[in-house]
Amino acid sequence: MYGLTVRWSLADAPKGTLKALRSYVEDESFAKFAALDGLRFKSWRARKGEWFEGTYVFVSDEARAAFQASFEKKAADSAGSKIIGSAPITIEACEIVAVVRGKAGFRSSASFEHDKRDDD
After folding, report:
1. H or E stretch covering 57
2. Cβ atoms of 54 and 43 closer than 8 Å
3. Sign of CA pseudo-dihedral 19, 25, 26, 27
4. In contact, 89 and 8? CB cutoff 8 Å
5. Least enclosed by CB within 10 Å: which of 46, 51, 80, 111?
6. C-beta separation of 80 from 21 below 8 A
């Protein structure tokens, strides 16, 4: 499968950045990527104070390459970069070896519960 990883550093991001990113994903980004042609799935991952990342899986190498080329042109001005205050540190194509849907299935919404102690 045709993957792409986009990662930003949170090391120098302002206080509250991860909370702002959570809101952005839920309010805007989730719907945007749910409608993206050629995208099989996207996940958003983070480690507080370390990094924020988007992991994408596309239907073809062409779909991945087209998205990557388009994103690289505007990466520094993307919503994530504006919230974090810096451009991505990594934009790289990768192979997704496998994806399994576990017994619990996937969530169908961006809203989620998180430990309130993790708010920054």
Report:
1. strand 51-58
2. yes
3. positive
4. yes
5. 111
6. yes
